[in-house]
Amino acid sequence: MFTVNPFFQLSGLVSPLAMQAYVILMVLLVAGATILDTIHKKSARYFFNNAEKAKARASRKVSSVEKVSIAVQTVAVDVLTSGEFCNQRRRVAHLLTMYGFILFIATTAIMIFAYMETETPVLLPLLWHLGALMLCAGGYWFWFFIRVDLAAEGNPWYRVIPADLFVLSLLATATFALIWSFFQAVGAGGLATFFFILFITASTVLFGSVLWSKFAHMFFKPAAAFQKRVAKADGSRDGLPPPADKPEQFGLGIKRLQPRNY
Length: 262
Prior knowledge:
The protein is an all-alpha fold. The chain has helices at 6-10, 16-41, 43-57, 64-79, 88-114, 123-146, 148-151, 165-185, 189-208, 217-234. It is elongated, with a radius of gyration of 24 Å.
């Protein structure tokens, strides 16, 4: 099971061309829906307007070299290691889900486009199954134990709201993919076909519901994290308290007291 390309085994039932066309269609759906989401919610306009307002409040100019350094920090801390999460359990669950998703999607595309007529290197199906398992581990951990409304508000794990569409379709895609691969490996043709249909249905919901889910959110987070670091560097970050010696800027008319040591 873990060393066999499940899509190669499927090629007797579904043509490689049809599989490749489906992958391309999903990519186009994500790209198109993300653009529409940006236009509909005016995310890009809000982002750039906010950046211009922050630039006007800046107390110093950030050089190009410094911006490159900030970009590297953003990728290393906020993107690759999810440093914005203070809760370690949430951070680990997020990293498992994120890297599992990347492995799962990348190896799916490679196996479908490059190894439908030639022997698949053992590493690729291993990484495909590992990615799905990591995704399930992080996703189910989040769903059953870490969600804010579950942990803080005491809601039951089965309470579902529209915002849960992304994580549920993501979990369903990985779960049905693993079950399909298992039944295909043991030769249970009917069950393999059934769970393959569920796998395709879940993945279609995942990639086709970008306008209504949080899928597009993952594309905006790095840009927002970068802008936050730039605002901190140039002194324009929102929410900072007024300087102690200039309360009149905020119409307070009072002076800030110095902290005391008791």
